[in-house]
Amino acid sequence: MTTTPHLPHEPAEGTACSHHDHDHHDGHGHGHGHGHGHGHGHHHHGGHGHVHAPASFGGTFLIAIILNTLYLAGEAGWGFAAHSLSLLADAGHNLSDVLSLLAAWGAQILARRTPSERFTYGLKRATILTALLNATILLLVTGGIIWQAVWHLIHPETVQGQTISIVAGIGILINGGTALLLMRGAHHDLNMRGAFLHMASDALMALGVVIAGVLITLTGFSCIDPLASLIVSGLIIWGTWSLLTHALGLALDGVPQAIAPRAVEDALRNLPGIADLHHLHIWPISTTETALTVHLVLHPVPEDCTILEAQSRTADLLARATVLLREEFAIGHPTFQVEPPEGASCATPGCNSPHTAPKETDCAHDHHHA
């Protein structure tokens, strides 16, 4: 039996091989979605598409970091001069934004590195860890803002409403513009979503500061400043919680939220030629790429089939399964383990799944092409 070193999730027991994965040590690409029979005792690796590979947003990150660093320095200075908690809180938020942008950019660079003998999938998981880190930092910073807001409600200070409104208004333009730049990648990449959420939440905080500044100017009530901080902080926590839970799920190898495991199983079972399946595992490689392993039990091979015909049937079936997973579920790294149809059990330790299959099908009329 041969092993699959880059998929530690599955023990190595199999019966035929088709190999297309692009993340091997030699770095050479193979065909997309085509099965190749290689006899018995191997796994099958489906080809993966590049549609969901992390795009490069280096220029966007660089612009965002420069703008936010300059604004951070100016806002902090005005916050101290105006004795405004809202401005200082927003400056603290901007500091976390700059750090989160640097982390997200760094994770994206790491994710694009070539796999190595030690890291056979590369460092793609850095994007998941960064998304989790960004969510955690955002919640911690927001918790600090809430603490200071409560303190300033108990110990109020005079606030220059007009000053904080002008400075925060500039922040809306910078943070809101940066969020728009990051929005394109936030839909399909949790790492980008974390960076986007940082910028969007900061734009929201700045809007709250502007409103608070206008109301303070009109009424003279300085308590409006910390009250606005509390309201905006609550909205940020509400928006960040889903990012935290999603990132934590991916970090624990949970199935990505966009994929329904039952739907994947049903789709594979409905492919002609598959009699049964078990040991289905789906987990994230990064915030944009997903892997799958599954044990497939095929229909019995008719006695009149030659070895080449049987291999062709298997290769054709695996090609169809690869294309199905890639196009319907965005799963680009499938590994299939093919097992005997009847009279045997799975050889994987701890698996007691008996193999049962319908009667054999006609060899001459059972070829399906993707």
UniProtKB/TrEMBL annotation:
Gene3D superfamilies: Cation efflux protein transmembrane domain. Keywords: Ion transport, Membrane, Transmembrane, Transmembrane helix, Transport, Zinc, Zinc transport. Residues 62-246 form the Cation efflux protein transmembrane domain. Residues 7-29, 357-370 have a biased composition (Basic and acidic residues). It is found in: Membrane. Residues 1-50, 346-370 are annotated as: Disordered. InterPro entries: Cation_efflux, Cation_efflux_CTD, Cation_efflux_CTD_sf, Cation_efflux_TM, Cation_efflux_TMD_sf, CDF/SLC30A. It comes from the Bacteria. The chain crosses the membrane at residues 55-74, 131-151, 163-182, 203-221, 227-252. Residues 263-340 form the Cation efflux protein cytoplasmic domain. Pfam families: Cation_efflux (PF01545), ZT_dimer (PF16916). Residues 30-50 have a biased composition (Basic residues). It is a multi-pass membrane protein. NCBIfam families: CDF. PANTHER family: CATION EFFLUX PROTEIN/ ZINC TRANSPORTER (PTHR11562), RE54080P-RELATED (PTHR11562:SF17). Belongs to the cation diffusion facilitator (CDF) transporter (TC 2.A.4) family. SLC30A subfamily. This is Cation transporter.
